[in-house]
Structures are given as C-alpha cells and as structure tokens.
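Collaborator request, handled under Task 6.
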Amino acid sequence: MVKYYYDKKPQALGTGTNRELTLKLLNHFHLADYFDAIMAASDVEQLKPVPATFLRCAALISIRPADCLIFEDALLGIQAALAAGMDVIEINQLEIKKVIAQLST
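Structure tokens returned to the collaborator:
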C-alpha cells in the first residue's frame, strides 16, 4: 500500500519504536523514501495511547486528523488513533515481529 499510494497521497509513519530501529527496518525494506514524515518514539514526549505521535504526523503532512487512516499493529496504537479522531485498521503483528527480531540481532 505504501508503494501504491506514493506520490498519490501524503503518507506518514508514526511508530512507538526508536528512530534507529525504525530507519533500519525502513531501509532494509527500501521504504524510507515513501514517507513524507516519520515520527519515532523519541520524537514525542508522550507515547501511545496518547495521540501525540499521530497528531504530529497529520500536522507534518498537512492533513486534518479526521481525514487520516491509520494502519496499526498494536492496541495502544489503535487507542491513540481513535483518540486522535482518526480511522484505524488493525494489521497482523506476527510477520512484523519476526522481521524485527531478525534485524535486532
């Protein structure tokens, strides 16, 4: 989806992961350049379920929160998206965790 919507819709990544691992994952999958904004856990004072991460992403790409659609893999992120007034779709964590585990070693 990220590749499909590249240059069609603004895209931001808001993650509870630290910036170093986030960039390592994005670069591993050649996805970093597809995002107009990236917000990692170290970029905000309050983490999910507080909606600060997603609200900052929306502001950075100049999109109203009500017009955002969040793809989220964790309950805290789902809560944050809903608290921000954004629509949210839950995605599967299993494959994501396998890749993170491999790249963290």
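The cover message to the collaborator said: "Residues 94-104 form the longest helix (11 residues). The longest strand covers residues 69-72. Please let us know whether this matches your experimental observations."
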